[in-house]
TrEMBL record:
It comes from Pistacia atlantica. This is Uncharacterized protein.
Length: 248
């Protein structure tokens, strides 16, 4: 208390009463306290996005190491020790390395395609530095940083095999539904009227000649760098989006 007392005194406190059927969004890293005024049923969901993606990976890696250490005595008698670690990780944390890789790969594809579509539909080159374009680029930069951290983790062969087919992903109705929601959400956040994105058309045009398979962390990094390179080919060196990749 003595060490951080002055910071607490400077903090801005927000207090409210949550009524029935209301939702409260608590941003990452915000300290919060709940006092139930009467008998209450509370439903909570943890979430992650580009901002706290690094925290999710750190948690996943820590839980993985703990799960592996907990069953270390089974290594010599287990035919697939790594597969067992990944199954335990998924059971305890809600996802394993495969699940996380699939998520970030799809999220990368989602941002890459929408970024290209946004820039292609814009008649004004300065649109490439618009808030929504910067937002998409920062998402990709965040994923790239996590992918570089993932490269440093040595995973023995076993059930942890990464594989994402970009073309199959775009044919997945659930992914296309996610794309539509993503477009609407970013359009509302940045007050962009009538912004829609033809995902499949964008992919075929902008990623033409590029491999559609992502099977390693290196492939994921290459996809993000390829997107940055495409931007470099079509826009000036002063483009704020490219500078974000250069600073990484």
């Amino acid at each position: 208390m003595c060490l951080y007392g002055h910071l607490i005194l400077q903090a801005i406190w927000l207090e409210c009463t949550q009524e029935q059927n209301e939702i409260i969004f608590v941003p990452s890293g915000w300290y919060h306290q709940v006092q139930n005024l009467e008998d209450t049923i509370s439903i909570n969901h943890n979430w992650f996005n580009a901002y706290n993606l690094s925290w999710v990976w750190d948690l996943l890696l820590r839980d993985y190491n703990e799960a592996k250490e907990y069953i270390e005595d089974l290594r010599d008698i287990c035919d697939d020790f790594e597969g067992l670690c990944q199954r335990n990780l998924a059971a305890n944390t809600g996802m394993n390395f495969n699940d996380f890789f699939t998520f970030v790969s799809r999220f990368t594809l989602l941002n890459v395609v929408q970024l290209f579509q946004l820039l292609r539909d814009s008649k004004n080159p300065m649109r490439s530095s618009s808030p929504i374009a910067q937002h998409l680029a920062l998402n990709l930069l965040s994923i790239r940083k996590i992918a570089l951290k993932m490269k440093c983790v040595v995973i023995p062969s076993g059930n942890c095999k990464f594989f994402v087919d970009l073309r199959e992903t775009l044919d997945d109705p659930e992914f296309l539904k996610l794309c539509m929601g993503f477009s609407r959400m970013y359009g509302m956040i940045h007050k962009l009227e009538k912004w829609s994105c033809d995902m499949k058309k964008s992919l075929m045009v902008d990623l033409e000649g590029y491999s559609y398979l992502i099977s390693t962390v290196e492939d994921l990094i290459k996809l993000i760098d390829y997107a940055a390179g495409k931007l470099s080919d079509n826009y000036s060196e002063e483009n704020i989006l490219l500078s974000k990749f250069d600073d990484a």
